[in-house]
Amino acid sequence: MEICSISQAAPDRRPPAVNEDLVLTGPDFAVVLDGATAPAGVESGCKHSVAWLVMRLAERLATPLLTHSSASLPEILADVIAAVRSGHADTCDVANPDSPSSTVAMVRLHPDHVEHLVLADSPIVVRSPAGQVTVHSDDRIEQLPERTLAAVRRLRNQPGGFWVASTEPQAAYEAVTGNTDRAAVDAIALLTDGASRFSERYGHSWDELLDVLGAEGPRRLIERVREHDAVSTAKGKRYDDASVVFLQGP
C-alpha cells in the first residue's frame, strides 16, 4: 500500500514547547503516538518530558516492526513499555500514576490480513473496496464518570478506567485489537485526536475524512481542521498537535 503522513504541532505552541505527536512508518507498518500534555501543576514524578517518552516508545517499536517480529502487536507494545520503563526506573518515580503517557495506534500489513491496535483516543479508520467504513476506536476515557484531575489519576491504567502507554505493560493487552482480511481493505487512516476531530468534533463523516485524504492528502485534512479550530466554540483546547498516516491501494 502507498503510505503518506504528516505530523504538525499545534499552531499556538510556543518555544520551547514541541510537538508531542510522533509518526513512525515502514514498508508494512504504520504507527501514530500522541503524548498526553500534563495539566499545569501536576507532578509526574519523572524528570523526562512527554516528548521524550513518545520518542523512546517509537525507537523501541521500530526494531520489532522492521525485523518482522512474529509477536502480536500487544506483545510488541507490552515489551516496549516494559523496556522504556526500565530505562528510567532508576531516575524517576515510575509508580507515579501521572507519569508521562501516550496514545498508540498501529497497523501491520500481512500478506493475507491487516493487524490493528488502538490504545486510547487515536482512532484507525478503514475503508473496504466496496466503500464500507469501519472505525476502530477506544473511547474509555470519554466514558469516565468524571474528568477531574483526581478521577483521571485514579482511573488511569486501572480496570474500569482507561489505558495508555506509560509505565504499565499490561496496558498493551487492554488495547482494542483485531485483524481484517487484506482483500477487504482499500484505505486506512491512523489519526491522533488533533486530526480526528474533523469528524469527532466538527461533524464531518468518516467517509468525507477519507475522501479528503485520498484526493488532497493529509496536509489538507489538517488545514481544514485548523480552519474549524480557528472559529470553534467547543470546550477543550482550541488547537492540538495533529498527525495522520494514510495508506491506500492494494
Automatic annotation (TrEMBL):
InterPro entries: PPM-type-like_dom_sf (IPR036457), PPM-type_phosphatase-like_dom (IPR001932). Transmembrane segments: none annotated. It comes from the Bacteria. Residues 29-217 form the PPM-type phosphatase domain. This is Protein phosphatase 2C domain-containing protein. It comes from Kribbella hippodromi.
